[in-house]
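Aim 2 progress update. The chain analyzed this quarter is reproduced below.
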Amino acid sequence: MTELVPMTVTDFLAFVAETVPRYAADKVASGQWSVEESVDLARQALDDLLPRGLDTPDNHLFAIRAGSESVAVGRLWFAVQQRAGKRIAFVYEVSIEPEHQRQGHASRAFMALEATVRDLGLSGVALHVFGHNAAALGLYAKLGYVPTNINMYKPVQRVGGADALVDGAAATTVETTMLAR
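Predicted structure tokens:
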């Protein structure tokens, strides 16, 4: 059994300590931020989204717990947002600890999330996934999420006054926002 349990203050402090560098690394990998600025920008983004920490209105932060002993296996955070005149859950973070990955916890956490969303009277779940995260893209597709927006990028290098592809090959970063059917 996998369940969502509201984060404690201790859970939240661990969440912040892990989320900031992970988000910074993802933004660097996607080509959006430089290494030098990434941690400061990630910390600022989290502060902007959760100005009151666990007490920020319309934000729901959970520890993902599993098994009969309710072992912490990950975290999930969503915020209630307005989209196209409807109230939805926007998932900002879902993570499963490395030693617990590939055991179905993320899929079961999303099933628990759907129950929570229904209980709150929300009409759907949206999320963002970095294009370089193939495992997450596969999971979300398996769970029935479909792309709603795709941003793409191709780096070019100036060579002899003309733009050319770096190393002669296209490099693509895809940022996808997905929404449940």
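The first strand starts at residue 2 and ends at 6. The beta strands are 2-6, 59-66, 71-83, 86-96, 125-130, 145-153, 156-159, 162-165, 173-180. These observations will guide the mutagenesis experiments scheduled for the next reporting period.
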